[in-house]
Amino acid sequence: MTPKFSQETLPLHSTASDATFEIDVWRYHHPDATRTVYLQAGIHGIELTGIPVVHEFMKEIEEHKLVYNFICVPLSNPMGLDSQIMGVQTGYNNLHTNQQNCWNWNRIGNLKDEPSLEGCWIKTLLDLSAPADIILDLHTAGIETVPHIYFNESDKEHVTGLGIPHLLTWNIPSDSFSDTNFQLGKVALTFELSSSRSVHGEWVKESLIYLRRFFGLLPKVEGSRIWQTEKQLKKWYSPTGGILCWHKDAGDSTAEGDVIATLYTRKGSLNLESPYTGVLLLKNPIQAPHERQELAKFLVE
Ligand SMILES: [Zn+2]
Questions:
Q1: Structure pTM?
Q2: Domains of the chain by start residue, with CATH
Q3: Residue 154 CA: distances (Å) to CA of 1, 109, 214
Q4: 48 C-alpha vs ligand 1 centroid, how far in Å?
Q5: 107 CA → ligand 1 middle, Å
Q6: Separation of 189 CA from ligand 1 center, angstroms?
Q7: β-strands 259-265, 253-254: how paired?
Q8: pLDDT tens, per residue, the chain with 301 residues
Q9: 140 CA → ligand 1 middle, Å
Q10: Pairing, β 187-192 against β 134-139
């Protein structure tokens, strides 16, 4: 018996003009599989790298006849993907059809029983992932980031050895897609593969290597660092408004007091010192911040 993908298209949403949004699901059954994997990308519409990664990895699943069952949803949020204003993607939140609160598309696991657009969409994804034991949700982060992964301590064995530089363990679950699944007793991991809004061939290649290591197609490697999200993940805010000029890249180590950026304000230039000793995890997509706007996230020693 040859394992093979079967494809299904599900309706999600229709607009005022009756344009429709649909979601494609690919299912792969291996006769000897004991575990089912749900592999998804694109929950946040500005996060693109995972979409080609899922398409490419589906070819590898067939080629290597991986002994798992797979449910693959490369493009899980077409509404988010199609959200843009004047050529800039904005699909991190639903700011099109929700007049009240611009839901973050990945913080609404709690809405699954609500008959709203968001509730219906997240219920569709949670129903699709229900048969799975392992949830891999592919995201990206910031305008610039170093690859990292969010996981619960109990899933540590699954995230070590993949070659992802920073592993962020959490204790308190959010209403994210992965955390909602984790609370149902599954292995559930949120991968942050690359920067958002852009895709580079090298990022796709590197991300495929993480997946090959996860599924045993490549040997595990050393070199990841584990951080505690609640204690060691810190946001950094702009002291005043201006034009931000960075002197560090995401992934760089920083020492408290190092000059890491210059802010050009009305009163002149201001050297911004690193507030932390640790790693610059990601930069936010703002180059002209207001006072107190979030600039970046750090992993703090
Ligand atoms: Zn995301």
A1: 0.97
A2: 5-223 (3.40.630.10), 231-300 (2.40.50.100)
A3: 35, 21, 16
A4: 10
A5: 10
A6: 12
A7: unpaired
A8: 556 899 999 999 999 999 999 999 999 999 999 999 999 999 999 999 999 999 999 999 999 999 999 999 999 999 999 999 999 999 999 988 888 889 999 999 999 999 999 999 999 999 999 999 999 999 999 999 999 999 999 999 999 999 999 999 999 999 999 999 999 999 999 999 999 999 999 999 999 999 999 999 999 999 999 999 999 999 999 999 999 999 999 999 999 999 999 999 999 999 999 999 999 999 999 999 999 999 999 999 9
A9: 6
A10: parallel
128 CA to centre of ligand 1 in angstroms: 19
